[in-house]
Each structure stands twice: as structure tokens, then as C-alpha cells.
Design a protein that fits this description.
Helix content: 40-55%
Shape: elongated
Number of domains: 2
Number of strands: 2
Bound molecules: zinc ion
Structural class: mainly alpha
Strand content: 5-15%
Number of helices: 9
Largest sheet: 2 strands, antiparallel
């Protein structure tokens, strides 16, 4: 399952901008972020940050912690992602091994049937779900953990 698909659908400009940066790095038009310093703190940079996703190649090389502090760029500033309510949690588990739902139920202290009925993962269960299933908290509850851009940028930059 592509955990970035939901993010891409919600923030198409950000997705396109990340793709543009990845292409530019691969083409050698801009250096890999790992080869330069974070413009905010001077440590080794790890990712490129956009302040404005309508300017795909106007990026700053930053480390991950500075990237997190910066938050999303225009036009997504102050617009946390909504959980995709069309996707039930049990559907996210389709490609997981049998028994995963039971493990989630045990980790969360609820019944298997309760997990089966979840639409959106309850806020207080998002970390347990991540631990058991590997489904990142920013995927199960993007409204609470809006760090998908960092995860995306990390995969893009790698
Ligand atoms: Zn930094």
C-alpha cells in the first residue's frame, strides 16, 4: 500500500513540487540535500523544504528537525490534512498478514469487533496502530500528525 497516495491526493501541489525536486536532484540541477548544510541551523541538511509549493524549485535545504519546525508551505499553511473517511481502518489492513487486526485489538485493549468497526483510527490509538502495523500516524490521523510532508520528502530525497 502506498501510504503517500492519500497525502498526494490531499496536497497535489506539494506532491508535484516534491517530484520536481527529486527530478532536479537526479538530473544534477540541484545538489542532493545530504551534501549541503541546513540553512536554518547549519547541521547537515537532509531534505528540501518548500515555503511555496507553486514554486517547485524554490527550495531550502534543511535538516529534518528544522523541516518539521517550518511546517507546510503555501498554500497548505494552517491547513491540516483531513483523515480520509472513505477508507476504513480494516481496509488499510487488507495487505497485512492475517491476525494483524487481532494484534491491534490486543495492543489497544479493545475487542476485535471494535477494531473492525473503526472508520477513522481513534486519536489515542494512532501510536499503538503505528507500532503494530507500521501504518504511520500521519496516515491514520493526518489531522493530528501533519508530518506527512517530512516523510514524503525523506523518501523523495533518499
Ligand atoms: Zn536544521
Amino acid at each position: 500500500m502506498n501510504y503517500n497516495r492519500h497525502y498526494s491526493a490531499c496536497r497535489p501541489l506539494a506532491y508535484q513540487a516534491h517530484i520536481a525536486v527529486r527530478r532536479a536532484v537526479l538530473a544534477g540541477d540541484i545538489p542532493a540535500p545530504s551534501t549541503i548544510s541546513c540553512v536554518d541551523c547549519g547541521k547537515d541538511a537532509q531534505v528540501y523544504d518548500h515555503r511555496d509549493y507553486t514554486q517547485p524549485l524554490a527550495v531550502d535545504a534543511v535538516c529534518r528537525s528544522c523541516n518539521r519546525l517550518r511546517g507546510p508551505g503555501h498554500p497548505y499553511i494552517d491547513k491540516p490534512l483531513e483523515p480520509d473517511r472513505r477508507v476504513k481502518f480494516r481496509d488499510m489492513l487488507k495487505k497485512h498478514p492475517r491476525g494483524t487486526m487481532a494484534k491491534v485489538a490486543a495492543a489497544c485493549g479493545v475487542s476485535w469487533a471494535a477494531v473492525w468497526q473503526w472508520g477513522t483510527v481513534p486519536a489515542e490509538k494512532a501510536l499503538a496502530v503505528e507500532r503494530v502495523t507500521g501504518i504511520p500516524r500521519h496516515v491514520s490521523r493526518p489531522d493530528l500528525f501533519p508530518i506527512a510532508r517530512e516523510a514524503l520528502a525523506t523518501t523523495e530525497a533518499a
